[in-house]
Amino acid sequence: MALIRWEPARELNALQGEMNRLFSTFFDAPAAGTPDGPGAPRRWIPAMDLVETDDHFVLRADLPGVAETDVELSLEENVLTVSGERHAEQEVRRDGFHRIERASGTFRRSLTLPEGVDGDAISASFDRGVLEVRIPKPAERKPRRLQIQVGDAPTPIEGRAAEQAATS
Questions:
Q1: Measured torsion, CA atoms of residues 74, 76, 80, 86, in degrees rounded to the nearest 10
Q2: CA dist 29 → 35, 40, 53, 63, 85 (Å)
Q3: Per-position b or e across 3-21, b if 16+ CB within 10 A of its CB
Q4: 146, part of any domain
Q5: What is the 3 state secondary structure string of 113-125?
Q6: Where is the SHSP domain (predicted)?
Q7: Against a cut of 0.85, is the pTM above it?
Q8: Alpha-carbon distance 73 to 110, whole Å?
């Protein structure tokens, strides 16, 4: 059996290499040979908040760098969808090192609304990179009390008399 000398500096270098590899998967562009390819835009998912008030559900989406003309809001079968695109701002530099970490590209977020929401009453505004969608709450369905009629009610016909009454 061969004895191998332990070198702590070599172990630290290996650990640092693994940490660098881990962080580069989060911050660097996709490597060559990956489905996205080099230089492909990274996936961007805007942050959204959903707040409930007394009368509305309020959806706020942070869309920095997105023009209101690049945002689409649609409602289909109680599913509200916010979609759009943030365009990349490419800057050509000849000297020095630069890095692009802000993701760009298309996005799409969907939210299932409760039954009974009036789609025509939904309103949206866009101010300083924040989209706000106000969704009115549906009217609560309250149980309805039905009246039971007593007396003067027609008596159901049963048996042979019912068949004869139906044919005549």
A1: -40
A2: 12, 7, 41, 22, 19
A3: eeeeeeeeeeeeeeeeeee
A4: no
A5: CCCCCCHHHCEEE
A6: 39-151
A7: no
A8: 10
Which residues fall within 8 angstroms of residue 71, CB to CB, at 6 or more apart? 63, 82, 83, 84, 126, 131
List pLDDT tens digits, range 11-49: 888 888 778 777 766 655 444 444 444 455 456 788 999
Instruction: State the total domains in the chain.
Output: 1
- Backbone φ and ψ for 165, nearest 5 degrees, come out as -70, -35
Mean pLDDT of 135-144: 82
CATH of the domain at 120: 2.60.40.790
Q: What is the mean pLDDT of the chain?
A: 78
Task: Give domain status of residue 55, yes or no.
Answer: yes
Domain presence at residue 164:
no
**Using one digit for the tens of pLDDT, what is the confidence trace for 99-112?**
667 778 889 999 99
The β-bridge partners of 57 are: 52, 135
CA distance 66 to 90: 15
Domain span at residue 66?
Answer: 41-90+101-139
